[in-house]
Amino acid sequence: MEAKIIKEDKNLLEIEMNNLTIAEFLRNELWQDKATELAVWKRSHPSKNPVLVLRTKGKTARKVLQETIEKLIERNNALLKEFKKMK
What is the pLDDT of residues 48-64, one digit of tens each? Predict the structure, then answer.
C-alpha cells in the first residue's frame, strides 16, 4: 500500500492512499479515539485514489493516526495467532 501526505497541520491530516479498503478500515477505527472530530475519505472520481481526512482535538492528528495503526497491528497479530491455533 502506498500513502502520500497531502496536507498536514497540528490537528489535520489529508493522506492520499492507493487502497480504498484500507482507507475505509482506518476511517472506521479512527472514530474509536475520542480526540477524533472528523474521519472521512473522499475522492474526486471513482478512478482516483481516495484521500483520508482526519481532524482532531486534544491530540495531534499524526498521534491519533499512529496510535490507531498500532492498535490495528496488535489486533491483527492477535487474530493471526488465533488462526494459527486452528491449523
Answer: 999 999 999 999 999 99
Q: Is the pTM for the entire model greater than 0.85?
A: yes
The answer to whether the CB of 16 falls within 8 A of the CB of 51 is yes
Question: Which residues on neighbouring strands pair with residue 41, listed in sequence order?
Answer: 52
Q: Does domain 3-85 have CATH number 3.30.1360.10?
A: yes
Task: Please state, as a whole number, how many other Cβ atoms lie within 10 Å of the Cβ of residue 48.
Answer: 10
Place of cell 497540528: 10
**DSSP-based three-state secondary structure for 14:** strand
DSSP codes of every residue in 15-77: EEES-HHHHHHHHHHHTTSTTEEEEEEE-SSTTSPPEEEEEESSS-HHHHHHHHHHHHHHHHH
What does the domain layout of the chain look like in residue ranges? 3-85
